[in-house]
Amino acid sequence: MTGMLGAGQDAHTTDAALRVVVVNGSPNARSKTMGLVAAVLDTLKGMLPIETSQVDVYHLGPGFTGAIERDDVTPEVEAALRLAEGADLLIAAAPVYRGSYPGMFKHFFDLVDQYALANKPVLLAATGGGDHHALVLEHAMRPLFAFFQALTVPVAVFASSGAFDGVTLLDPRVYGRIETGLADVADLLRSRATGTRTPAGA
């Protein structure tokens, strides 16, 4: 599917795997933002079985960028929206752009159904040039998902450019924050994976 990397399934995945969907707000599929997400997913894999899918909003094409309302999107974009709406855990990841998240990232969530994320766990992740950009998590991203009545993970994750070697996260403090954030909601995520769920796209 355009703009969506194939659902990568961990080798130890079972029928009770947690369905994790990453919404990538970076223009690049390979970036510091996705390096941060990779660290999150690696940590999460050590806690419980997961299956992962990724939506790259910048690669969704004119059927996405030209859509004003949900009814305007192409079938491919509709499938990407449903994928995000059907996740057990949504990872919303974006680089800081002019003090906030990129417009394309916001446009994706403008098209998400208002109630589709209610009570859904959402992990917030962001990258920026300096530590002062971390404010985007609390002042921009968390209010966005509060509108959806989502269950944002209390500990959000930020990494500045100095925490990386290329796109590989090296800073142990960020890894520690990831571990703390996921440990706080581990029981909730396990219950999501093993509970009765409506199949994605149903």
Q: What is the CATH top level name?
A: Alpha Beta
Helix count, DSSP H or I runs of 4 or more residues: 7
Distance between the termini: 18 Å
Secondary structure: number of strands: 9
Helix content: 25-40%
The arrangement of helices and strands along the chain is: EEHEHHEHEHEEEEHH
Any idea what the radius of gyration is?
16 Å
Q: So, CATH architecture?
A: 3-Layer(aba) Sandwich
Q: Main sheet? A: 7 strands, mixed
Describe this structure in words.
- This protein is of the alpha/beta class and 202 residues long.
- The chain has one domain (17-192): 3-Layer(aba) Sandwich (Rossmann fold).
- The protein contains seven helices and nine strands; from the N terminus they run E-E-H-E-H-H-E-H-E-H-E-E-E-E-H-H.
- Strands 1, 2, 3, 4, 5, 6 and 7 form a seven-stranded mixed sheet that branches.
- Helix 1 crosses helix 6 (172-184).
- The longest helix is centred in the N-terminal third of the chain and has 14 residues, at 32-45.
- InterPro entries: Flavoprotein-like_sf, FMN_Rdtase-like_dom, NAD(P)H-dep_FMN_reductase.
- Residues 19-163 form the NADPH-dependent FMN reductase-like domain.
- This is NAD(P)H-dependent oxidoreductase.
